[in-house]
Amino acid sequence: xxxxxxxxxxxxxxxxxxxxxxxxxxxxxxxxxxxxxxxxxxxxxxxxxxxxxxxxxxxxxxxxxxxxxxxxxxxxxxxxxxxxxxxxxxxxxxxxxxxxxxxxxxxxxxxxxxxxxxxxxxxxxxxxxxxxxxxxxxxxxxxxxxxxxxxxxxxxxxxxxxxxxxxxxxxxxxxxxxxxxxxxxxxxxxxxxxxxxxxxxxxxxxxxxxxxxxxxxxxxxxxxxxxxxx
Amino acid sequence: xxxxxxxxxxxxxxxxxxxxxxxxxxxxxxxxxxxxxxxxxxxxxxxxxxxxxxxxxxxxxxxxxxxxxxxxxxxxxxxxxxxxxxxxxxxxxxxxxxxxxxxxxxxxxxxxxxxxxxxxxxxxxxxxxxxxxxxxxxxxxxxxxxxxxxxxxxxxxxxxxxxxxxxxxxxxxxxxxxxxxxxxxxxxxxxxxxxxxxxxxxxxxxxxxxxxxxxxxxxxxxxxxxxxxxxxxxxxxxxxxxxxxxxxxxxxxxxxxxxxxxxxxxxxxxxxxxxxxxxxxxxxxxxxxxxxxxxxxxxxxxxxxxxxxxxxxxxxxxxxxxxxxxxxxxxxxxxxxxxxxxxxxxxxxxxxxxxxxxxxxxxxxxxxxxxxxxxxxxxxxxxxxxxxxxxxxxxxxxxxxxxxxxxxxxxxxxxxxxxxxxxxxxxxxxxxxxxxxxxxxxxxxxxxxxxxxxxxxxxxxxxxxxxxxxxxxxxxxxxxxxxxxxxxxxxxxxxxxxxxxxxxxxxxxxxxxxxxxxxxxxxxxxxxxxxxxxxxxxxxxxxxxxxxxxxxxxxxxxxxxxxxxxxxxxxxxxxxxxxxxxxxxxxxxxxxxxxxxxxxxxxxxxxxxxxxxxxxxxxxxxxxxxxxxxxxxxxx
Lengths: 230, 636
Prior knowledge:
A: about 230 residues; mainly alpha; B: alpha+beta; five-stranded antiparallel β-sheet; four-stranded antiparallel β-sheet; 14 helices; GHBP (chain B); Growth/epo_recpt_lig-bind (chain B); transmembrane (chain B); Fibronectin type-III domain-containing protein (chain B); receptor (chain B)
């Protein structure tokens, strides 16, 4: 066996090296591209936008499913939006409530809204997942979806930040967008209002906000890169 | 809350039924609430005759409309009697406002884009003159009431027809609804196509997908299909209206007929040919194997049939090796050894009275070896006479050597005939000149299945050779042996002094002894191997069951003997003294003579004259044995 492994192992090592080297080269190409060269299109902005839009659509789908499942358990006596005081913690964020509004505001503002929303939902969803895992009356399907939802919020935020960086690099938007990873932004998001919400309201609010994010991203894409799909 | 039918059931049931009904009703109500449908309220409101909203729908996520119904109170059905107020909960201090746009013909309130805010809860209510009809279920958000318009421009193209010509695939394509602003990306719509046969009742729904074209598989030729499509927002549950139906029908295409049966014929033909080839290969397997892989010739020994060996017929094998004494087999044996010149066969007489194969062999061989002239010896080929003898007067009877040789051979072959017949004596008496070497053989001697060889177990000091017995010969002694001997001695003037070996077979015990005695001083050139020596009956006996023949020049030879060598005839012992000792199973062949015959004792080299002088034995010879160093004694 060792005799067979010996000639194979160097070949294997070479293959692995090739794979890694290609990756490194591509990454190097990425780093080269960030120097501001305009001819660098290894991943186009439209492609990036498509990816984040698909991601947000999936996130919204999951939130919708979870919300529907919660209705089976909670059976609200009223309509799903019956209560007047549906006080979502993200209500403080000013969001455009229509197509014209979303088209009218500046790109940077729209992008900032998206990022704010994404940042605002990171912690609440994580805690929601913890609650779901503890309460065993929920089946594994819901628990997996909650975990997936919290992960997707995290991933989507990173993706949108990448898109923003690319847009800033391409000069589409001004770099005046505050980095939401800064401690100030984090402090702002940590308003702890969401701790007062129950799970059902939290799901309802997130379902609404994920729909907002989805629409805003689509609007933003078609405003910035209106080639195809718009 | 409960419809009329439900109320009837409720009255008729017992307590458990009541509980079930209650649960069912609760669930139904909750389901209705969950989907935000206000349709169930119609039934409720009709029962209570309240003015209510029938539906609120948005088509493009930018505007929405609400329709109301005055209920059963007809006095409110007049235009303007009811007013619509809405509440937009975008701030805690929001207020009820009246419908921005009325469409009284439809009892519809239209909210344009300026008054429409997505993701903000709305509540609508009807107000009469003094009464406000409000239901909390009439609150909603715009994105939840979106029902897109159906797609437009639904069309289809034929993709392909199956090779059998029975089914086909169709690609349907359409345009998104114009009201939905898909281009800007404001709405993301997914579509659902449904189709059915012309006269069927159930629609078949394909999978929802967001693209503007979809393939319908498995439609059958000759049938007409009806297709329509509807749309909805992704990740939402409310579908829009169905589009107008289109009809799809594909008739048969006749020019495709020829291909299908042709291909079928080709396929079946190939399969049939393969089957035929397979059958041929199976049936002719052996022949094919012979042709392709011819058998390799195995080594064979001439004259020995492997089949015979397998069957274990050792007797026949012995017979064959003996030379095929039987008449029937003799030519076979001769054919076997046809090309081998050194093989000469004993041709035995047919007059073997015994009848048995082995018995005949033994009988004749033994008798001839012992010089019993009962047989008509013909063509003794194994032991051939020297040609020289024929020219002169018989130094020795031609028969005698044959006898002798045959007897000797018989002695060599332990599988000897059982009986030595008394008839042996008869020819001896006839040919008085013969040096009769008459063994004790008289009477039936039955040879029982003796082996091919006899081993010399011991050599007597007197010269006799003791052979270990192979089988059990029955030997009866010849009482007249001594007489014959005397006769022989008298008559044998011309005798060339055969050195004849006499073999004794004693039958008293199942022991077979072979005594071959070399006559002393007998320089007779016997071309035959037979040297018969006879021992006087009073020869010392090595042991019981033993008969030795000692070489003694005791016989009176005629004066005609040239060299004075006297053939000595050693007669076997009298039957009284029968000594039995275990005799070996085989004799040792000394050498081949010039005629390529097996010699127990090599003949002394002498002049080619027939009548060879008797060679006196210079020294006494060991019984039955002429060692090579003793050869010189025999040579004249």
